[in-house]
Amino acid sequence: MSKIQDAFLKIGSVDRRWIFLIIALVVIVPLLIPVGLPIRPTDTTKNVYDAIESLPTGSKVLLSIEYSPSTRPENHPMTISIMRHLFTNNHKVFITCLWPDGQFMAQDAINQVAKNEFNKVYGEDYVFLGFRPGNEAVVKGIVSNLRKLYTVDVYQEKIENIPLMNGITNFKDFDFLFSSSAGFPGTIEWVQYASDPTGVPMATGVTSIQVNEVMPYVQAGQMVGVLAGMPGAAEYEALIGQKGSATSGMDAQSVAHLVIVLFIVLGNVAYFIERNRAKKY
Amino acid sequence: MKDKQFWLANLVIIIVFLVYWMAGQPYFFVDRIVMLVAMFAMGSTLIYNVRFAKQGGEFYLRPIPGLKAVEEAVGRSTEMGRPILYVPGIQDMDQVETVAGVIVLGHVAKMTARYETSLNVPVSRSIVMKAAREACRESYMLEGRPDMFNEDMVHYLTDDQFAYAAGVNGIMVREKPAACMYMGKFYAESLILAETGNSIGAIQIAGTASQAQIPFFVTACDYTLIGEEFFAASAYLSKKPELIGGVRGQDMIKVAIIVVIILSTIIMTMYENFGIGFNVIELLTVR
Amino acid sequence: MIWKRQIPILIVTVVGWITILGWYIDEPTIQGFVNDDATQWFDILASFAIILGALNLIKLQVQKILYQKPGWIYSIVAVSGFVFSIVAGFFIKGVEDSVAKWGAHVTTDGTLFKWMFDYMFSPLSATMFSLLAFFVASASYRAFRIRNFEATLLLVSGIIIMVGRVPIGSVISSWFIMYLIVLSAGIYVNIWKKDMTVTFIFVAVGISIVTISGFVMGWPIDQPGIFYLPAIQEWIYYYPNVAGARSIMIGIGLGIFATSIRYVLGIERSYIGE
Predict the structure, then answer these.
(1) Residue in B with minimal Cα distance to C254
(2) Would you call B211 and C249 a contact, using CB atoms and an 8 Å cutoff?
(3) What end-to-end distance do the CA atoms of chain A give, in Å?
(4) Which of A40, A65, B3, B94 is buried most, with the most CB atoms less than 10 Å from its CB?
(5) pTM score, two decimals?
(6) Is the pLDDT of residue C273 over 70?
(7) Which CATH number fits domain B65-238: 1.10.357, 1.20.120, 3.40.50, 2.60.40?
(8) Which residue, among A102, A217, A132, A146, has the nearest Cα to C39 in the 3D structure?
């Protein structure tokens, strides 16, 4: 019995580098050998899907990209899925970025979805407005006068020469907003300065850690729904019927979470054994 | 209650506003009147308590372990002969948390000047660099140790979030500070910083109002100032009556908000279920 | 002295009050200042201020290289990266003007800047973020201990959220959770009563109730919903979690309000020195 207890105590004080190694293995192996666990969409994800599905064909949707390569595994699959859903339903997509890195992410998504998958025509089906510095001032600028803020698009083409921009002067000219966000400025600025004051409906996709911050807005009805991290992205991929990198990442995330729980349980067993021994002596 | 000047000033403001209102309130967003009244009430509460404290009124502030630990951390660093690392967040001076972080830095710099401990402040924004330098310079001068101040103790790394985290981690691993303080606005890099600080055996004190990062700091740091405790830090550390009065004013406003929430819940329940009363949510919604 | 004290306080007070009261004033010039100009002035200042930061960075790193202070090799990497970014951004495009104009070249494939972003910046950024996966594991392992009631609550809710949020949580039957609860309660009864007979009876009765209920209901994986991990996880997310988040948000908002009022009234002056 005391040998077993000693073994648990050893586990309880293991060098963290062993934990790092085990975590690396449990993440890499499921990525190489997928298990294919079923994905069950949550209500918040379904609400986003239903909101976009119920938009009339040809609706003008503003898609705002504010994440960087560091959160690409969480946010990029959302952006791809939302873009696929929008183009499948023949909506007109206007892309803007509140982060400078977002411009690169948006261009990658446009290349993959708009150009390669759907053969959409630039200027008729979608417009890429690009990044402007100013954080929440950009959001306020889009709300008041978009043409003052964006005189040219990301390719340095004048806005007046783009057919899809006809009739677009401010935020109220859009029918829906989706923000794929990883921090500041992002979702909260869109809710506070754009969506809530004007009444234009919005949804968002955020990193898992940010869900806490945005959930009060979802509960209050200021947002129709939220895609919560990579699980949210995987759920959306399941809803639109096109699996992507989020779905393949869920196996790794599932196993990693289970292993972390196992570590916590083992750590607590060691803690109790140590506490009992200390009481004895 | 005896502050005649305060009540007189309030009365004048109210009368002026009433006259403005009777005149047809030109150029005023009428929908936002509730917000203006709330702002006036909250501001008055704060100012009353500040004046009361300045005039000698004493308030009790509960002890916050994290703030008591700041001086212990500086003392520990002095004994070990190792520097203190202070991270004022990764956002710019337009964020109130960053300003609060720079204020706390001023107090920490006073302690490091007093104990002759070296201080390292890597920053992520140029304007923060200038503000933090001024705060440190002022503190060292007030302690009578301008010779110990060196401009390069506050230095710029990079604007990029993870490049900054990598830079700070490098400083931690190379210089092995005895104390690490994280006071300001943080995002995902918070756990990276805190875990690295834990791995070098430093005592860690964090303070942030970034909701999502509070759990990481609570898990990995020795002491954490959560939300308002961080904003109250300057009052605790300086012990200035006007700042302490402000903290008490905040607490009074919080009690008022709790009462409003409870009353609104009751009124809305009555309105929606029995048709009695009015739609208080419409009244309180800000447009 | 007036330039270092009174004038900065005046600027803060005037601009602060205009920004606060400007929200209530329906006048285009003031609205324009409050909504656009005020924040853009700050962004313009910050953009020029970056030169200060960059000069400071280069000065310190070059000093380290020249005096060969400890870690000077890393300073060579820092300076090289700095110079390379400037060259790629302003001097060498890597493609003809017909392919990409200056400005658009940062996102156009084939340019030196895009190459740097794709093959240097993105992998480095992603690597730093991925450290969080390892640090979360080691931090959880170290910190999640059943020391008291609150720590136990934190531990249990953390496990429920971690497992319930991912697909594997939806394949764990609610009956498995019920059996786990019975066994955990049995451990607690044993610690409390210190009587093997009582513990055995308790556990046996618990297991029997769960088993009989399971047979009666047909062992549905997600019923009873109160023991189904994704359902419990959603409840924790929507109710206690949001309640806590809201209260912290209100507190933080009050803290920001109080701090800002102190600045615009000139009570807090530590940003310009005491």
Answers:
(1) B250
(2) yes
(3) 18
(4) A65
(5) 0.86
(6) no
(7) 3.40.50
(8) A132
